[in-house]
């Protein structure tokens, strides 16, 4: 994907693709990435099975169940039931995109509601964390001060770095990293062009004075 002054953008990702499927990149749309339906559905099935197992212990569906097992069953019904309901609520068919990449910034709703402008990102890099590849955004000092004051961000990321995790998304790591780097590079180009335009009249006025 080539960067131009105002026309860089990315294609909309299909919300039902697998996590390993690459997203087709276009030059006319933002990239909107949802959560992977397959993974969430497996978690919902597992949660439902654990809820049924806990219910069997709680309501004495089998012989030889003691008071301790009954208490564990009630606790399991409460915990796994709530978790399963939460997973059902977050299914992609019920929710919108969770990561949005545009030529002007990025937003990861799993971290917070903040839209981070590429002009406020000093660097986009890749790292490996606990056996998984992640995208690391290094904020500028001004954005670091802003993030340190936002509670939603400070719970999940340090002020000096923002971590974007591709696990559970409908796109793969390489596509997301390429999109972030291309948009960041295009933003740098626009900033440089704008700076040159601003400096042009100033230098002309200085020569005339």
General shape: elongated
What is the overall pLDDT average? Answer: 76
Radius of gyration: 24 Å
Strand order of the largest sheet: 1-2-3-4
SS-derived structural category: alpha+beta
| H and E string | EHHEEEEEHHEH
Structure description:
The protein is built from five helices and seven strands. With 209 residues, it is α+β, with helices and mostly antiparallel strands. A hairpin with a 7-residue loop joins strand 3 and strand 4. The chain is elongated, with a radius of gyration of 24 Å.
Core attributes:
7 strands; 3-stranded antiparallel β-sheet; alpha+beta; 209 residues
Summarize the SSE layout with pairings.
Layout: E1 31-33, H1 37-58, H2 67-89, E2 99-101, E3 105-108, E4 116-117, E5 121-129, E6 132-139, H3 141-148, H4 151-154, E7 162-164, H5 173-208
Quick take:
The chain is α+β, with helices and mostly antiparallel strands. The protein has helices spanning about 35-60, 65-90, 140-150, 150-155, 175-209, and strands at about 30-35, 100, 105-110, 115, 120-130, 130-140, 160-165.
